[in-house]
Structure formats: structure tokens, C-alpha cells
Amino acid sequence: MLRGFVMLAAFFGFTGVGLGAFAAHGLKSRLSADYLAIFHTGVTYQLVHALALLGVAALATQIPGRLATWAAASFAIGILLFSGSLYVLTLTGISKFGIITPFGGLAFLVGWFCLGLAAWRLS
């Protein structure tokens, strides 16, 4: 599990930096200021939760039970749903993709809750 979560964190960190650079240089003249801000929100949440995923992976060996695994999986799902839906929305202009975004936010919340609960249970 540890290896997989670290690899996911690296992937999301790598693609987050790449997408941020793509937005700053390649999309600046193609997207409205509102859509560029939405894309930037996706990148920000992706990078923050890539670091959170890396932190959970580092702690997973110290936290008994499955809560760390659930936290990491929730962060990964949150990145895909939250950030992914924002990227698709801004690049296609299809606003219906915004319906998916709150489910990603909910996955982020579940991840943070699981991490907090795991910490609470530590002796």
C-alpha cells in the first residue's frame, strides 16, 4: 500500500505542476478569467491533496487499522473527481461537469475525517 500511495502522490504532484504551468502559459489567452480561476482552483486542490496523500503514506506504517488507507484513497478519489471535473468543465465549457465537483469535495472531507479519527485513536 505504501508504495502505491507514494506513487499516486508523485503522479498527482507531477501532473499538478504540469497542469499549473499549462494553465499559466497555454490557457491564459484561451480561457476567460473566470475559467482560468476555476482551473487554478483545481490545480491548487490537486497539489495540496497530493501532499496530503504523501503525508498519509508516510504515516500509514505508524497508524494501525484501515483509516489511513481510507484517508489516502479518499484523497485520490477527491483529486480525480474535484480537480478532474474542474479541468473538464473549463476545457470543454460543459457546465454539467460541475455536478461532479461536490462529490470530490466530499471525498476530501472523508479523507480528512478518517485521518483525524486515526489520530484520535492513537494512544
From TrEMBL:
The chain crosses the membrane at residues 39-60, 67-87, 99-120. Its main location: membrane. InterPro entries: DUF423 (IPR006696). This is DUF423 domain-containing protein. It comes from Pseudomonas monachiensis. It is a multi-pass membrane protein. Keywords: Membrane, Transmembrane, Transmembrane helix. It is found in: Membrane. Belongs to the UPF0382 family. It holds the Pfam family DUF423.
